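Entry 14. Structure prediction run on the chain below.
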Amino acid sequence: MFNKKEYNKQYYQDNKEKQKGYSKQYRMDNKKKVNEYHKQYYQDNKENKKEYQEDNKEKKLDRSLQSRYGITLEERDRMILEQDNKCTRCHLPFEGIGTEKYAPVVDHDHSYPKGDPNSVRAILHNYCNLKVGTHNDSIEELKLSIDYLKKTSKLALTND
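Output returned:
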């Protein structure tokens, strides 16, 4: 039995460059019409797009947590509650999302393989996590910075 959908799909695959040329020429010949269509499409689907993005934010975060650290979004949220919604490093409350300074992020030991849940240490502020990360999780590196600050800081020089 003849399947028109399959035929059209195969025809497009066999003649992709030719079809792209037709589409490009149409868009060039009908710029105003195409722009109006896109504006209207955007207006008609703006709310749907927002809802879709909101629905998928948690799914994306959950997948990211799973692949990077081997934990679920629920496990991360439970850790935040167990930490009384405060950063384990500085003990200030979490605020914000994503890359914001005081947003909660997973701190992990980089010596473990990616996705190993045993690598997870705690939930820190994004800012605090970056501070720890700049020393490559190394106590020796951190001591070097402390020694440097003790030698060069005005506060350290006046307190001695």
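Strands lie at 104-108, 120-125.
Filed with the rest of this week's runs.
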